[in-house]
Amino acid sequence: MPVTDVQHDLDALTLTITADFAAPVERVWQVYADPRQLERVWGPPTYPATVVDHDLTPGGRVNYFMTSPEGEKYYGYWDVTGVSAPDRFTFDDGFALDETFAPNTELPVSHNVYDFTEVDGSTRARFVATYDSAEGLQQVLAMGVVEGASSAINQIDELLAS
Q1: Measuring CA to CA, which residue among 155, 137, 128, 160 is closest to residue 40?
Q2: Helix, strand or coil for residue 58?
Q3: Could you tell me the residue ranges of all domains in the chain?
Q4: Which Pfam families does the record associate with it (predicted)?
């Protein structure tokens, strides 16, 4: 299992997940840079993702939806704020109302920093999501973000091995 640590800090408004992958940084970067690979790991195994638009450049947008086992679709987006390939990218991750990908202002947006660092030929990934309020962080924790994100990240090993 790649996920080695999960911390949430209501005072700092952060959720931090650390994972280790037996692959070079450049290979792990490709998981996020390629929409077809991203689909295989964004979302828990029982809620597979479909990436509709993928522009991983500053000012770009990634639109996606996840499909539940019952066929319900849950829409989301990334507004990409920074990219330093292959080491880091930053984005705002939000929930969308529907297939128009208009933001759902009833749900919180997280400001994310994904860092990839080489450690002895492998990659240590650090995923940090910061929320605007403790209530927003608590809301996504209650929705199961730790379990969902951890199970999604843990799928990356299988993709890297293929």
Answers
A1: 155
A2: coil
A3: 22-128
A4: AHSA1
pLDDT tens figures, 42-87: 989 999 999 999 999 999 999 999 999 999 999 999 999 999 999 9
Q: Could you give the CA distance from residue 66 to residue 46 in angstroms, rounded to a whole number?
A: 9
| Rounded Cα distance, 107 and 76, in Å | 11
Q: Which two tokens stand for residue 155?
A: 């799928």
| Residue-level pLDDT at 138 | 97
For residue 107, give every residue at least 6 positions away whose Cβ sits within 8 Å of its Cβ, in sequence order, or none. 94, 95, 139
Q: CATH for 22-128?
A: 3.30.530.20
